[in-house]
Specification:
This protein has 371 residues and is α+β, with helices and mostly antiparallel strands. It folds into two domains: 32-180, Phosphorylase Kinase, domain 1, CATH 3.30.200; 184-370, Transferase(Phosphotransferase) domain 1 (Transferase(Phosphotransferase), domain 1, Orthogonal Bundle). The chain is 34% helix and 21% strand. It has eleven helices and 13 strands. The strands form four sheets. The protein has a five-stranded antiparallel β-sheet. It is globular.
Length: 371
């Protein structure tokens, strides 16, 4: 497991309010990670699943995905489709062959998710392409039987690599994220044409550029399972970069970027990051370009130091995504002249992509919007 850190310097921002070491006025004792997480959840103590997920929501839950740290379910809340990400924490045994995260380790993911979600309210730098955070809760108790049933159905359909969540007892703690429903991941999404795929790439690059400018953000794990795609009725997706408006033809699709477990950002001199050096196995994978990206990121760091800002890591992941769109996706109109012309343009762009230093440079100085 990679360790997460924060390096506060000035006590002036919401992020620093979370991460700057503080003490209780009455006792002089340090404020704990548990207390900070509960504060983020607007709770004084963990709540039961029944208080976090209503019976109506629970009955509509369907498992749609999983990761090494938890499970993801789709349901609806007030007639809006939402996704629930449930992460067990603080237990003294491994889950999915990994130690459970502590309160201190889950806190950066909560803060980063919210900071990126706030970019949809930005002015000078604005993007609506990061998954919206509706709510974060700290929950305690056994896994609900309804969710275990949905876990089994997913396992029958796709085969789960995770431990069945019936391993948890009444004392188990979890963090439950309620996100907006971002749609289907890029890996499984079926495009009608290459123009749609190019729009997805453009939107992703624009979102990374905005977060770089506003937060010195690096995603550091932007594989195609972390790019979600949903339909939109809007003709264009708009983002603002340094007060400059950019308009991308949507071709009926909109991106949501998710999963900031390995991410890095800086907010008013408060740096939040995960120390990837603590998990050397991350750099040992083989068989897919994704695993080479981790090694390429490592080469860009200074003596395996993951605190400094190195936006070229975002370019590495854009190169990976472009490679997937060119070599791993199929398109219904692949025999048409329009497809072949667009593919030639994308391949030319792909060959020069790694020469850029950041996603911002990709947007500002390249022919990104002319793809």
């Amino acid at each position: 497991m990679s360790d997460c850190y924060w390096q506060p310097m000035l006590d002036v921002s919401p992020a620093q309010e979370v991460f700057t070491p503080k003490k209780h006025k009455d006792t002089g004792l340090p404020v704990t990670g548990r207390e900070k997480v509960l504060q983020q959840c607007e709770q004084t103590n963990p709540i039961p699943f029944t208080e976090c997920i209503s019976p109506a929501m629970l009955n509509k839950c369907v498992k749609i995905g999983e990761g090494v740290y938890g499970e993801v379910f789709r349901t609806s809340n007030r007639r809006q489709s939402v996704a629930l990400k449930i992460i067990p924490i603080e237990g003294d045994f491994e889950v999915n062959d990994e130690p459970q995260k502590t309160f201190d380790e889950i806190l950066p993911e909560i803060v980063i998710s919210r900071e990126l979600s706030y970019l949809s309210e930005g002015d000078v730098n604005y993007s609506n392409n990061y998954i919206g955070v509706n709510n974060v809760s700290c929950v305690q108790g056994r896994y609900p039987e309804t969710l275990l049933t949905q876990w089994d159905k997913y396992d029958s359909r796709k085969g789960s690599e995770n431990d069945r969540p019936d391993i948890f007892d009444d004392e188990q703690l979890y963090i439950v994220f309620e996100f907006a429903d971002g749609g289907q991941d890029l890996e499984s999404f079926e495009f009608n044409n290459l123009q749609q795929a190019i729009s997805i790439f453009q939107q992703t690059a624009g979102a990374l550029a905005v977060a770089e400018k506003e937060l010195e953000f690096e995603h550091r794990d932007l594989h195609w399972g972390n790019v979600l795609i949903r339909s939109t009725k809007q003709d264009h997706v708009i983002f603002y970069l340094d007060d400059q408006e950019y308009r991308i033809a949507s071709h009926g699709l909109e991106v949501s970027i998710i999963d900031f477990t390995l991410s890095r950002l800086q907010k008013d001199e408060c740096t939040i990051f995960c120390d990837l050096a603590a998990d050397p196995t991350l750099f040992d994978g083989a068989g897919d370009y994704q695993f080479q990206i981790y090694r390429n990121m490592k080469k860009k760091t200074s003596i395996n130091n993951w605190e400094p800002y190195e936006p070229h890591t975002n370019v590495l992941w854009l190169h990976y995504l472009a490679d997937k769109l060119i070599n791993s996706k199929t398109y219904q109109d692949s025999d048409t002249k329009a497809h072949k012309s667009a593919l030639a343009t994308l391949r030319s762009f792909y060959r020069h992509l790694l020469s850029h230093s950041s996603a911002e440079q990709v947007v500002v100085e390249s022919e990104l919007l002319d793809l």
